[in-house]
Amino acid sequence: MKQDLDRLMEERGLDAILVSGSGYNNPAMYYMTGGTPLTRGHVLKKLQQPPVLLCSPMERELAEASSLTVINMNRYDYLGILREKGDALAASVELYRRIFADLGVQGRVGFYGMADQGQAWVLLKALDEQLEGIEVHGDFDVTLIEIARATKDKAEVERIRDVGRRTCAIVGQTIEFLKSHRVNNGVLVQSDGTPLTIGRVHDEIRRLIAAAHLEDPLGFIFSIGRDAGIPHSKGRPDDVVALGRSIIFDIFPCEAGGGYYFDLTRTFCLGYAPPEVEKAYQDVYECMERIISSYAVGHEVRSYQRQACEFFEERGHPTIASDSRTETGYVHNLGHGVGLSIHEEPRFLDAPSNTEVLRPGHVFTCEPGLYYPEQGFGVRIEDVIYLDAEGAVHNLTDFPKELVIAV
Predict the structure, then answer these.
(1) Domains of the chain: which residue ranges?
(2) 181: which strand partners?
(3) CA of 351: how far to CAs of 288, 301, 403, in Å?
(4) Which CA distances in Å does 39 have to 56, 60, 194?
(5) What's the pLDDT score for residue 273?
(6) Helix axes 88-102, 78-85, angle to 10 degrees
(7) Does residue 258 register a pLDDT over 90?
(8) Of the candidates 90, 113, 93, 94, which has an alpha carbon nearest to the alpha carbon of residue 17?
(9) Distance between CA 350 and CA 104 in Å, rounded?
(10) What is the pLDDT of the chain when averaged over all its residues?
């Protein structure tokens, strides 16, 4: 949470942090500004001091809507510097020199936010070399901001829960859309007699997302048959919606303006389910139930991935625990944190470097799955879990798990 920032800065030996970039689709900047939709800006926080927001004069009134102290960048006259220096990099270095001198920034400074990798490297290298008294710091693995974001306060959880309610409604409306079609020769058909296609269903889902006042920056998954056996296949638009084939619907929209995400997956068959799909579905369902019942604060996150692999191997499925390159059976990690990014901390990778434990405030997915593309099916079920301040486990996903949908 944000109150952890000073502790995290001290652990890294940081005297200040600077978060830069757009306020949209830039989780670090969104987090620090409370979602203020700036085109570009900077948030500077010195150790044990409140952050300040530096903004363009064109967005000074927009910046005032944040809860931060605002500094108008006109104060540093970048245009004048650029005219004097005649070079964008030299002008940028001088701009940062003036900002840091004005705000009393010295020592080790951590840089965060979204930028082109090459441009960021050139700028940070120049700052490190040319600014006296400033040491540039960057986090390669999990950043300081990401660690702070990993635990949510009650207000954040309520926003995630609200997106979840709307997401569940979209899934329900999509199922009703499918059921509104008649069946002809084992295929859903439209009013003009042509087969209902995956592409047409995609169009309807996009309409429903927009109607729910949500955004879909990463796209969703609605795939059938063999494509359902490829975990991130979004589905081929020309495929027809047929009875008895597994359909994976994985939807992960966010608040309008690039805010908090939700993540929900359901697998179903229309009309009936083949025996092999029924068996895989039951294994996934039971794995999920067992693991959700075992979540507890203080337990190693990676241990739950091991549990999932052990469960599936006992049921005769290959897993990445015994073959890290397998593309059938259980092929991915059990879950991931959800917040201002669709994938954030905690991550359930079973690797020695993953020393994270479950903590109060964590919001994360539980999404075991089995994939057999050459047999023409895949199964995944996904709920979002929240651990409250007392460590109690809450399932934020209020949507039934039914394999067969009657049509």
Answers:
(1) 2-148, 151-405
(2) none
(3) 21, 10, 33
(4) 9, 11, 46
(5) 98
(6) 140
(7) no
(8) 113
(9) 43
(10) 97
Asked if the model's pLDDT at residue 25 lies above 90, the reply is: no
Could you give the CA distance from residue 229 to residue 246 in angstroms, rounded to a whole number? 9
DSSP codes of every residue in 231-269:
TT----TT-B-BTTS-EEEEE--EETTT--B--EEEEEE
d(C-alpha 28, C-alpha 113), whole Å: 5
Q: What is the pLDDT of residues 129-153, one digit of tens each?
A: 999 999 999 999 899 999 999 999 9
CATH superfamily, with its number, for domain 151-405: Creatinase/methionine aminopeptidase superfamily (3.90.230.10)
Dihedral (C-alpha) 9, 15, 21, 25: value to the nearest 10 degrees? 10
> What are the strands, taking DSSP E only, across 26-181?
41-46, 52-55, 69-72, 107-113, 134-137
Q: What is the pLDDT of residues 168-210, one digit of tens each?
A: 999 999 999 999 999 999 999 999 999 999 999 999 999 999 9
Burial code of 282-317, b = ≥16 C-beta within 10 A, e = fewer? ebbbebbeebeeebebeeebbebbebbbebbeebeb
Predicted TM-score (pTM) of the model is 0.95
Class of domain 2-148: alpha beta
**191 touches 272 (CB < 8 A):** no
Check: CB of residue 363 under 8 Å from CB of residue 384. yes
β-strand 363-366 against 369-372: which pairing, if any?
unpaired
What letter does residue 196 receive in the DSSP assignment? P
Q: Name the token pair of 258.
A: 């690039």
**Inter-CA distances, 280 with 335, 378, 404, Å:** 19, 8, 13
